[in-house]
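Following up on my earlier message about 3-methyl-2-oxobutanoic acid. Here are the inputs again, as you asked, copied directly from the submission form:
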Amino acid sequence: MGKITIQDILALKGKRKITMLTAYDYPLASLIDRSGIDLILVGDSVANVVLGLESTTQVGMSEMLHHAKAVTRAVKQALVIGDMPYESYQINIDESVKNARRFINEAKCDAVKLEWFAQCLEVTEKIIKAGIPVMGHIGLTPQTADKIGGFKVQGRDAQAAQRLIEQAVELEKLGCFAIVLECVPDRIAELITKKLKIPTIGIGAGINCDGQVLVTHDLLGLFERFKPKFVKQYINLSPLIQKAIEEYKKEVLAEKFPTAEHSFTIKEEELKKMQP
Ligand code: KIV
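Thanks, got it. Here's what our run produced:
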């Protein structure tokens, strides 16, 4: 199968669920791609789950491009989306098109994702007009969590829910190819999904979205600092990895590793030719 296109993603709405995961490096991107996941997001969640930072606003273009390049080197099939970091479009909106273009031209991503913020529509329009596919992101938007009451479910009263629906409709009108709904009541996510022609991708937004996304490190049990309610951990790799590392340490200290199996030899006659 060839590379998944934006048209393929649009055509999946109503046919089957769309799958999406995050990746930040070559080995995991490769495994995710070989598993047939449709969309890979080089998320700014790299800040939390890989770089040990508190906030996604602490990563910038250089970190995001560095990780995005590693991911696109691995991916043969999935559509790769570069997550625009806060500084790249919310601080100086005039820089947003140039930065979005860097994800496409330098990191070889297929699209970018932007979180909702006060000037989101203006920025989204500019980037789409520049010919770059955009995925929207509404509901809980971690880059501006301080402005929306913190890391909380969004759209829980009628007025706030109505606002989310309007945001989704506006983003669709501008030409976004899909929208992430993060931490939104399931019935509101369902309403948005039914109203839009483009796919919705849920994270903490219930079963009725057109697709689902998780942070891969959460799914694999590789991020131990905290676990949101919407995360399902499919395997807990952290203790397995720790056990393997402790085993290695024990064997090195006990001189059990490396054995001949993991060593290289030189012929006896070559050794004899050497000066003592
Ligand atoms: O950065 C990220 O991982 C995201 C997903 C949670 C959608 O934006």
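One observation from looking it over: Residues 240-273 form one domain. Hope that helps, and feel free to reply on this thread.
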